[in-house]
Amino acid sequence: GAGVSQSPRYKVAKRGQDVALRCDPISGHVSLFWYQQALGQGPEFLTYFQNEAQLDKSGLPSDRFFAERPEGSVSTLKIQRTQQEDSAVYLCASSFGPSRNSNQPQHFGDGTRLSIL
Amino acid sequence: GQNIDQPTEMTATEGAIVQINCTYQTSGFNGLFWYQQHAGEAPTFLSYNVLDGLEEKGRFSSFLSRSKGYSYLLLKELQMKDSASYLCAVRENLSNTGKLIFGQGTTLQVKP
Q1: Which of B33, B41, B102 is facing A105, going by the closest CB pair?
Q2: Which terminus of chain A is less hemmed in, N or C, by CB atoms within 10 Å?
Q3: Number of residue pairs across A and B with CB atoms under 8 Å?
Q4: pLDDT value at position A1?
Q5: A77 pLDDT higher than 70
């Protein structure tokens, strides 16, 4: 596709339920990032993939959060036993190459707005 | 530690010029990005600075001083559609990921 696609756009779940959020990056992009954005705040890093390898998961808030990118394209962020503090917008971003020294920007999707009741 | 500061809100008039400042203190530095984000939408890339100086791109310009830990985004000939949140983000270089550390964002309101 032309841009980063995320689904669903909105997700409402009851506390304790598991949720799965999907990200379709721009075709051919090697790097994929997940960020969490609370209302009125900037995005905060969760995890990073280079192709299928998860190279950094230092931002995941707890072991209830799990991300995968098994074939190096689509990625899924899973949250188990959701809690109210998990309510936020979850943004996915991709970039063309390994991102450390590149001037290639990260391209963001519209995000999934997660509400935990 | 990581700290990026931006003003929370700014207001400006259509047709005018506005400067949004960003100061940062990060464990490492490997470039600074500015993004625009309309409510409920994706952040979109505006500019990138890695060396000191001014980068100009149409109505938008961005400046960087690495020694001062300071950047600004300059928006000229403001239009109503420029009302949005503007995010300053530093790419740190301690990890091998290129992850971005964001400020809280500056909400700009453009008035007629």
Answers
A1: B33
A2: N
A3: 77
A4: 53
A5: yes
CA–CA min distance B18, chain A (Å): 21
Separation in Å, CA B37 to CA A26, A29, A56, A59, B76: 19, 22, 25, 22, 18
Task: Please check the confidence at residue A5 and state whether its pLDDT lies above 80.
Answer: yes
Q: DSSP letter string over A2-51? A: -S-EEE-SEEEE-TT--EEEEEEPPTT--EEEEEEE-TTS--EEEEEEET
- pLDDT tens-digit map of A54-64: 999 999 999 99
- At B29 the pLDDT is 87
Instruction: Give the chain B residue whose CA is nearest to the CA of A53.
Output: B97
Mutation for testing the A interface, residue in B20, B93, B100 having most A CBs under 10 Å: B100
